[in-house]
Structure formats: structure tokens, C-alpha cells
Amino acid sequence: PELSANVEKKQNILGNTSVTIDSYQKQGEVSPYYAEKGDPLFEKLQAIIDGNMVLDDLKTDIVEVKLWNEEASGAFPAVREECYIEVSSYGGDTTGYQIPFNIHYTGVKTTGTFNPSTKTFTEA
User: Fold this and answer.
1) Do 2 and 24 meet the contact criterion of CB atoms below 8 Å apart?
2) Distance in angstroms (rounded) separating the CA atoms of residues 124 and 122
3) Whole-prediction pTM value?
4) Across 25-98, where does the E strand assignment appear?
5) What confidence category does residue 71 fall into, taking pLDDT thresholds of 50, 70 and 90?
6) Which one of 36, 40, 55, 78 is most buried, counting C-beta atoms within 10 A?
């Protein structure tokens, strides 16, 4: 993800610069994404395309897992965050059907753990 900070710089008459960072507009890009039949992500992205989905129909969750800190239970610390999926294009060439997309994070986060063997997120 890119944090895309909102940065404001002001210079006074002495030439000194003050910097204010007051927010982040976190987003990410997945490109290329090669569609594979039977993949749930492909099914969701194709539904967005076919249904011309907008607004809350694009809302989902993304889980970021901290794989460097395994717990005794086999789970890892994780943060689930609400986000919106924006399909930027679709099509492709001889390499395969591609659906590149952007992820726009809302900042609504839930901390917890993720167990990769069961593929489940457990809220803290």
C-alpha cells in the first residue's frame, strides 16, 4: 500500500520551512492480476465488471498479516481494514485475461489474529 500523505509546507520570511502532515489516503494497486477460473477474487472482480457495480457494492475487507511474529497458536497478528475495490481495466493479450485493480482503504480497522491454516481472522 501507498500511504499518500497530505503534506503542507509553508516557508516564513526567514526562509524556514514548516511541514504539516495531517492525514493519509492509503491505497494500493494490483497490476497485473491474471484471472484464474474458480478463484474467488476473479469471481468478485468479474462481478464488478459485469454488474457495473458502484458505491457500497465495491466495499470489502482486506487483511494485512504480520508474518514475522507467529504466536504459539500458529496465528499471526493482523489488521482487517475496510476498503473499496476499483477495477481500472480488463482484457489482455496472449498471456491471459487481466483485471488490474486499485484498493482504496477507508481507515476503519479491526485488530486481531490470522490463522493461515484455517484462513480465519479472529477479532481481538
Assistant:
1) no
2) 6
3) 0.80
4) 27-30, 59-65, 76-87, 91-93, 96-98
5) confident
6) 78
